[in-house]
Amino acid sequence: MKKLLLMILLVVISMVTSAHAAPNKAVEALEVLRHGFSAMTDFSAEIVQEKQMAMMKRKMVSKGIVRFRKPGTFYMELLPPYGSRLLLRDNVLTMRLPEQGVADRIVLPPEESLDKWFAYLAKPVTKLPDGMELRAERQGSGWNLQLFPKGKGGVKELAISFDGDGKIKRLTIQERNGDNTVIKFANMRRNAGLKDKDFQLN
Questions:
Q1: How many whole angstroms separate alpha carbon 33 and alpha carbon 36?
Q2: Which residues of the chain have pLDDT under 70?
Q3: Residue 121 in 3-state DSSP?
Q4: Helix or strand run (H / E) with residue 105
């Protein structure tokens, strides 16, 4: 889970470093997503994660929860049999495997912090980011946005499905090594007034 989150963060950070003018549906989709995030102070949601490893036939399915609070606190917990807890406070990432009693901590570079992402979200999207190809299409009242990072990074494709209010419904990550992860979101609550106790690893 730690590797997965790091890859997503790197894709997101690469979106904010530079951009080029190309008004189209992708710009409109990014602006809908940005507006949805900028209008909230926190959110929580139930998730179902489906992980298909390239070297395994059996799909690993986990249920869990995610919580987020501005300016930069993110928590994700997966329930047994693949139990794990992850906490990201700005640029400090901590992961715990409760059943194994193992904990790991990583300090990310400042340029990969959540602050940089939300600085980007504070401004309307008028240009597409450099360093990747983007495609977007409407699906009823919602959107499906596909991101294809260039280069030799771990992520081959990142697909985000969200409604007209920018509420994420589904996230798909295809890695270059053949692994595939799908995270489905349900019962999302915005601006619920989450407290410090809602972001504890213990």
A1: 5
A2: 1-23, 100-102, 111-113, 115-121, 129-130
A3: helix
A4: strand 102-107
Q: What are the residues whose beta carbons fall under 8 Å from the beta carbon of 115, sequence distance 6 or more?
A: 71, 72, 90, 91
- The pLDDT mean for the chain works out to 81
Domains of the chain: 2-187 (2.50.20.10)
Tokens of 85: 């807890």
How many other C-beta atoms are found inside a 10 Å radius of the C-beta of residue 191? 10
* Single pTM value for the model: 0.81
pLDDT per residue as tens digits for the range 48-73: 999 888 888 788 999 999 999 988 89
| CB 125, CB 166: distance < 8 Å | no
